[in-house]
Write a structure and sequence with these properties.
By secondary structure, the chain is an alpha/beta fold. Helix content is 48%, strand content 13%. It is built from nine helices and five strands. The protein has a five-stranded mixed β-sheet with strand order 3-2-1-4-5.
């Protein structure tokens, strides 16, 4: 964590000669408190005896600084050799050639002032749709709505055969040569065995989503604009990967 703090420190430090300016460590701690507690900004303000504007600037600085680290962590299919990734997935339930498991999750946000309908999900809740890949962390995000995977660069690259391996997804995803989904009505025997191995292997991505939301309580409801929400989600992803490492 120390190395990562030194990396982002130039982007969060206050360039001022005022005697009461916050240090880089204080700015980081304020942001981490907001991330972990899932509270309103004014709750953090009262706890830290600071103005709401100061807390807001601190959170914003840290989010943008952590966003710079995203290309270091979010790499598909991952930092390990492809062969090692396949072996790890195979040990779970014997499913061969898997390099990732994909799933989506919705992060609730407050109703935006513009294009509100674009952020309403099928449960009639305003949210950001986040696409997760186990072994690569959270890869894509956008307003709620169908077709996130189909419109992604990852889907096109898989179709072109750029990766030597398969993805596993649930029934919400289209079954493709490189993206396998469960049989809708499996018959006893090979199809049922396929579904069981598929389910056990793909459970890892669901566990990853659950762990991220448990670690950062703020993800229960982000009371910011959609643009700010995406930046905060990116910061969570980077911090989650640092914690996992």
């Amino acid at each position: 964590m120390f190395w990562h703090f030194q990396t982002i420190r130039p982007y969060i430090c206050n360039i001022t000669n005022r005697g009461h300016a916050l240090t880089s460590q204080q700015i980081l701690c304020i942001a981490l408190r907001f991330f972990a507690n899932g509270s309103f900004l004014y709750n953090v303000r009262d706890a830290e005896h600071l103005s709401k504007a100061t807390v807001c600037r601190a959170v914003r600085k840290v989010c943008l600084a952590l966003k710079r680290l995203l290309p270091i962590f979010v790499i598909f299919p991952g930092h390990k050799p492809v062969r090692a990734i396949k072996e790890e997935f195979h040990r779970i339930a014997g499913f061969p050639c898997v390099i990732g498991c994909i799933d989506g999750t919705h992060i609730p946000i407050k109703a935006p002032s513009h294009n509100e309908a674009n952020y309403v999900n099928r449960k009639s809740i305003h949210s950001i749709n986040v696409q997760s890949l186990f072994h690569t962390s959270f890869l894509m995000w956008r307003p709620s709505g169908p077709g996130l995977y189909r419109e992604s660069n990852l889907s096109n690259r898989l179709q072109r055969g750029e990766f030597d391996g398969l993805l596993l997804g649930d029934r919400d995803y289209p079954c493709q040569p490189r993206l396998l989904t469960p049989y809708p009505d499996p018959e006893p025997g090979p199809q049922q065995n396929f579904n069981q191995a598929h389910c056990r292997t793909r459970a890892r991505v669901e566990m990853t989503i659950g762990l991220l939301k448990a670690r950062f309580q703020c993800l229960r409801h982000l009371r910011v604009t959609p643009e700010r929400a995406c930046d905060i989600i990116v910061a969570y992803v980077v911090l989650h990967d640092i914690a996992t490492i």
